[in-house]
Design goal:
This protein has about 200 residues and is of the alpha/beta class. Helix content is about 30%, strand content about 20%. It binds zinc ion (2 copies). The site of one zinc ion has 4 residues, from loops. One zinc ion (ZN) binds next to loops.
């Protein structure tokens, strides 16, 4: 039914769940609609929105935008975006990434390396051995050098390239996004499309 590709920003931080973000959830929704996004995914640091809270925000957003919730987990080895977990049981700050991946696999969630070369080469190079589903290759938070290394990682691993804003302020929401096939109405739909994606497209601001 939905044959066109959907614009998905799957890496956005809101305040106060992400203290480093200045964006309220309502501001993020407005900014995503203004940027033409079809799907917006909140990925706050080590915090996941409850379905009920998302349902209320979805009602506020109306029919123009699908709102979903993932999480950005701070692991010992770096940051990883996870989609498909409905609670944070078993997740903890600075956990080993292999433990996180084990939890994600049991729940059929998707795991993406976020800005893998932002913190250190070691962080990104670790991803050559990890059972991840995709690589975030560009964002508002990624240098050109880190972007090139992430593209190389995705290419060598034959993993989908994800473009996402990593927005911490309203103007960045939607500035980077991935085009995915639809329909995407649930987090399970998003997980399926991430795993099916062969390539992403970037449309910088
Ligand atoms: Zn991060
Ligand atoms: Zn982030």
């Amino acid at each position: 039914m939905n044959s066109r590709l959907l614009k998905v920003d799957m890496h956005v931080h809101t305040h106060p769940f992400s203290p480093c973000s200045t964006t309220t959830p309502h501001e993020a929704i407005e900014a995503a609609i203004n940027a033409g996004m079809d799907v917006l995914v909140f990925t706050d640091h080590d915090t996941i929105w409850l379905g009920q809270e998302i349902d209320e925000l979805q009602q506020w957003a109306g029919g123009q935008l699908r709102l979903l919730a993932g999480i950005e987990v701070s692991c010992l080895e770096g940051h990883f975006l996870v989609y498909g977990l409905d609670k944070v049981d078993g997740l903890r700050y600075n956990m080993p990434v292999k433990e996180l991946i084990g939890i994600a696999r049991r729940r059929e969630a998707a795991v993406i390396a976020a800005h893998p070369f932002r913190f250190s080469m070691e962080c990104g190079n670790n991803c050559y051995q990890l059972d991840i589903d995709a690589v975030e290759v560009d964002s508002s938070n990624t240098s050109q050098t880190a972007q090139a290394l992430a593209v190389k990682l995705a290419t060598q691993r034959n993993l989908p390239r994800i473009y996402a804003s990593d927005a911490h302020c309203p103007r960045d929401v939607g500035s980077y996004h991935t085009l995915l096939s639809g329909p995407i109405d649930t987090i399970a739909d998003l997980v399926r499309e991430i795993k099916n994606a062969k390539r992403g497209y970037v449309i910088p601001k």
